[in-house]
Amino acid sequence: MKIVIMTLGCKVNKYESDSIKHYLKLKGFEVSDKLGYADVYIINTCAVTAEAEKKSRQMIARCKKFNKSAKFFVCGCASQNNPEQFLSKGALYVSGVAAKVKITDYVEKMKEKVAGNLVSPLPLEYEDDMHAEQDRMRAYIKIQDGCNNFCSYCLIPYLRGRSRSRDIISIIKEVASLPEDIKEVVLTGINVTDYRIDGEPALLTVLEQLDGFGKRLRLSSMEESLVSDEFVAGLKNLKNFCPHFHLSLQSGSESVLKRMNRKYTPAEFLQSVERIRRTFPLAGITTDVIVGFPEETEEEFNETVEFIKKVRFSDLHIFQYSRRSGTVASKRKDLSPEIKQRRFEILNALKGELRLEFVKKNKHCKVLIEEKEDNLYIGYSENYIKCYLESRKDLLGKVVEVKMGHEFKDGARARVKKIL
């Protein structure tokens, strides 16, 4: 029996899908994450935006084009939010965020009467029953789940539950078990900033414990509140830390940040950026920005534009505000799609300028080569520039020192100086 797992949304979902894949293979099933013919489809859904939830629903129809008689198993944030929307489309089994690996048991017992809404209560403790199959040069390691922030636009705390941290021994064991050819570890979670040991912030402790494995270490994202002098100094002492900081901004307007229930001001955010750059002058600093938040005025949007210019991010992830029923922001007056689109285009043009500026600042980088496409090797520098290289030698899985060239596609061309 062939099973295909389709994953929507974040790296946490990807890690969880890879764990499901791992356990299904142990049970003897043929499993793929490539869309195609299958007897069973498992859809791991996302609900961060209305569009993501829509795509999660549409995935069933996409899969049915390959096999109308297939059985469907659904899990994740969108089914936690509304399981009926998947049952009505013919899903055999619908669960939510909790106990995702139980899907493997239900697939095994598919011939028995297993059907309907099986969404479990949200867990209060970290569910440490996952071990992802790592089949790339870069391994994503989940260290935390849930969120306590309750930003006014976001459903995730309601769908993922409160913040809970994975035991550090479990994290160390998983990293220790990684194949030698995996050269980079990315720590991921719903809010890794809130990783704790015995109730105390401990993200730096995790990084220090993993530094000895000799693999590049990267954080998937973080909040500016974590960026203290002590934290940055601790990162500087690590041998393998990649100086790439994805700091979620969302808006450069103080009044909008208050309506978003974000816990910082633009001035405090800028101080965190400056603290990083004093220690890591060429750090990649990327961010998320929401345009068209309810009642956002033209003046507030312009404040965001000017703040982004002041910070000089290396890259932007821009999202148009998506109304999520049940959130505080959903009660405010939404802006028109035309206003959102215009503001998106303004920031998207600025994004291109900033990315080009950052590429030009970098002369030499160390790049982990992860794939080959159209005779070009592709990988990311330590500060997260996507690099495209030509070489007669096989570079896949290698870390190479490069001389940076001109901007190319979504990154830069580079020339190999040395294979490390």
Give me a quick take on this structure.
With 420 residues, this protein is of the alpha/beta class.
Task: Explain what the structure shows.
By secondary structure, the chain is an alpha/beta fold. The chain has 3 domains: 2-117, Rossmann fold (3-Layer(aba) Sandwich), CATH 3.40.50.12160; 138-360, Alpha-Beta Horseshoe (pyruvate-formate lyase- activating enzyme); 364-419, Nucleic acid-binding proteins (OB fold (Dihydrolipoamide Acetyltransferase, E2P)), CATH 2.40.50. 33% of the residues lie in helices and 25% in strands. It contains 13 helices and 20 strands. The protein has helices spanning 11-26, 50-64, 77-81, 84-87, 102-108, 156-160, 168-176, 203-210, 229-236, 254-260, 266-279, 298-311, 337-361, and strands at 2-7, 30-32, 40-45, 71-76, 93-94, 116-117, 138-145, 164-165, 184-189, 196-197, 200-201, 216-219, 244-246, 284-291, 315-320, 364-373, 376-381, 386-389, 399-408, 411-419. The strands form 5 sheets. It has a 6-stranded parallel beta sheet, sandwiched between helices. Strands 16-17-18-20-19 form a 5-stranded mixed barrel. The radius of gyration is 22 Å and the shape is globular. The model has no long low-confidence stretch (mean pLDDT 96).
